[in-house]
Amino acid sequence: PTATTTSAATTAAAVGPLLIPGPGVGASKATSCDDLWSTSIMPQIDKIVACTLTLCQDKVPDRPNSHELFGYDFMVSDSKGKPKVWLLECNSCPARDYSTPVTCALVKQMMEDTAKVVVDLPKNPEGPTGEWKLLKDFDFAKRRCSLAR
Length: 149
Hints:
The chain is an alpha+beta fold. Helix content is 29%, strand content 23%. The strands form two sheets. A four-stranded antiparallel sheet has the order 1-2-4-5, with helices on one face. It has a two-stranded antiparallel sheet with strand order 3-6. A hairpin with a 4-residue loop joins strand 1 and strand 2.
């Protein structure tokens, strides 16, 4: 399975290597929140996306040269002074319309970056993926997919 996202709120997935986005389109890379993002929020999102894809992989047919896009909606709350990520829903056909100025920028970037992953990455595995990052080190065999905390 492949997972990709454009923000903490929206994640997409396609068949192939597991990919998930960085801080998101337009996110500041020099804020004090970066530490919480990289040390707490993104690892939780990575685990949730990987586990949901692992748990449903037998239900998604393998079709060569095709891709599936999933949209993940998350909420972040405070739990004992640390952020806790909650999966609200996963959509098999997420909206990709320009309904707001925020979604306009996110969807445009997601579509451009998806082309890099789907078209360019197979030809050049070390090539740029835009905001997508490859979860190379996610060891599905060693990770427990229990989402209970």
